[in-house]
């Protein structure tokens, strides 16, 4: 259809185009949003840098909580120590120092090659072995090396593969990925009472509640065999790993967040982790104990197939060392349910050892004898503000391990073994 201008023969006059009011407003709004986002990002970066600088200054002053990053996410283990760090880890009643070597071990530098005639022991365990609450020369493996040398076993190395907050599955993976390459003659697994919880892909997330916890697991398939579940990939891992390794502020924020622990899941009115002591066990805990037994058996077979010896040592629990544990436990945790039986813990471990021919020793008697000989009071072998071992606790642990090694012929027994007992009796 023709319009009026075309009918009359007049040329159409094209008026210059002008932006619509709505488009102009949209551009202004978009620029405003970008400005706000950029300004907030710039302010965040400034505040982050300021907070980082202030924290680095404050951590150098006495009387403050002082620490720095020394652990990070690991795609194989879920968690690992950062290699080649030397940082203070202090709070209230303790001032530890975390020093790691090039292999990411809480240890002095070690070489892969062994000296001729050398006996090499690999200590594997959780925070008991890692010992970040004490100085490097106070950690159990260094103390044990010194004790062995004083007993005439000067050509013995005790390597520390400890890592806090791990269980038997991760300890087995640490052996496969790291300890095995050092060709240890003896592998000692230090079994803690929270290892059963750590070994469960369903219970551990319940215990940590709102916190994301990265770990590998073994589950049971329909035939009751182990089925491996690898570590979950972590979103924004590159950026987060950089911050974990270099930022004190990010480390502190993570610690603050982790200290917020609302009790999301319970067992008989207590925190969920105490279900390991249930009698009878809930089905979920029964599965966790079954996984633990199968992983320990797999661990033993793997170590022995490499030509090494395998030993499980069980340190005393809170219930073993403290005669007043019922009163103390009730004040902190709540009423003790009738389904909780602390004696079942060692009974179940003994059953695992007997069924699978695993060399296993309990260190309870040594610690109790030391407590009585020195008339120790609460908190006995632990720190006053933290349940982990003090320097004395690491020393007594080393003595207890040495006694077991000599008694069970893992190292040649010598007449000088009386030194340890004399040391315990005199307190020197």
Uncertain segments:
1-15, 415-428
The helix fraction, in percent, is: 40-55%
| Number of strand elements | 15
What does the average pLDDT come to?
Answer: 87
How far apart the termini lie comes to: 113 Å
How would you sum up the major sheet?
5 strands, parallel
Structural class: alpha/beta
Structural overview:
The protein has 16 helices and 15 strands. β3 (86-91) and β4 form a beta hairpin. It is of the alpha/beta class and 428 residues long. The strands form six sheets. The protein has a five-stranded parallel β-sheet with strand order 6-5-7-12-13. The chain has a two-stranded antiparallel ribbon with strand order 1-2.
Write the layout of secondary structure elements.
Elements: H1 4-8, H2 21-58, E1 71-74, E2 78-81, E3 86-91, E4 94-99, E5 119-124, H3 127-130, H4 140-150, E6 156-160, H5 168-177, E7 186-190, H6 195-198, H7 203-208, E8 217-220, E9 226-229, H8 237-246, H9 248-259, E10 266-267, E11 270-271, H10 283-305, E12 309-314, H11 318-321, H12 325-333, H13 343-356, E13 360-362, H14 364-373, E14 382-383, E15 386-389, H15 391-407, H16 418-426
Parallel strand pairs: 5-6, 5-7, 7-12, 12-13
Antiparallel strand pairs: 1-2, 3-4, 8-9, 10-11, 14-15
Helix pairs in contact: 4-15, 5-10
């Amino acid at each position: 259809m023709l319009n009026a201008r075309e009918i009359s023969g007049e040329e159409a006059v094209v008026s210059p185009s002008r932006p619509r009011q709505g488009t102009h407003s949209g551009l202004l709004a978009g620029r405003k949003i970008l400005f706000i986002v950029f300004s907030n990002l710039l302010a965040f970066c400034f505040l982050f840098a300021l907070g980082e600088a202030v924290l680095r200054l404050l951590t150098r002053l006495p009387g403050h909580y002082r620490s720095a990053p020394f652990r990070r996410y690991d795609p194989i283990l879920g968690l690992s120590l950062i290699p080649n760090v030397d940082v203070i880890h202090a709070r209230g009643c303790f001032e530890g120092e975390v020093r790691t070597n090039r292999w990411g071990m809480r240890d002095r530098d070690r070489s892969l090659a062994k000296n001729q005639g050398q006996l090499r022991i690999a200590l594997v365990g959780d925070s008991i072995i890692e010992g970040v609450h004490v100085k490097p020369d106070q950690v159990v493996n260094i103390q044990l090396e010194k004790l062995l040398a004083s007993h005439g076993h000067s050509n013995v190395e005790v390597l520390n593969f400890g890592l806090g907050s791990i269980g038997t599955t991760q300890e087995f993976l640490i052996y496969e990925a790291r300890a095995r390459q050092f060709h240890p003659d003896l592998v000692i697994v230090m079994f803690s009472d929270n290892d059963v919880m750590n070994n469960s892909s369903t219970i551990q997330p319940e215990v940590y509640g709102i916190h994301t916890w990265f770990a590998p697991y073994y589950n049971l398939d329909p035939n009751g065999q182990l089925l491996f579940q690898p570590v979950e990939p972590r979103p924004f891992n590159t950026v987060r790993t950089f911050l974990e390794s270099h930022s004190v502020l990010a480390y502190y924020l993570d610690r603050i967040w982790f200290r917020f622990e609302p009790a999301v899941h319970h067992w008989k009115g207590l925190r969920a982790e105490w279900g390991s002591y249930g009698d009878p066990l809930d089905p979920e805990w029964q599965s966790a104990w079954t996984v633990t037994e199968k992983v320990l058996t797999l661990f033993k077979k793997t170590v022995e197939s490499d030509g090494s010896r395998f030993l499980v040592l069980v340190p005393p629990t809170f219930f073993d060392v403290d005669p007043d544990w019922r009163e103390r436990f009730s004040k902190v945790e709540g009423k003790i349910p009738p389904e909780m039986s602390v004696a079942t813990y060692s009974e179940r471990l003994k059953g695992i050892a007997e069924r699978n021919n695993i060399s296993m020793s309990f260190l309870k008697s040594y610690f109790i004898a030391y407590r009585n000989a020195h008339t120790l009071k609460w908190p006995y072998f632990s720190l006053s503000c933290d349940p982990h071992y003090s320097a004395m606790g690491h020393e007594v642990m080393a003595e207890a391990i040495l006694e077991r090694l000599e008694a069970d012929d893992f190292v040649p027994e010598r007449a000088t073994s009386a030194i340890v007992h004399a040391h315990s009796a005199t307190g020197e």
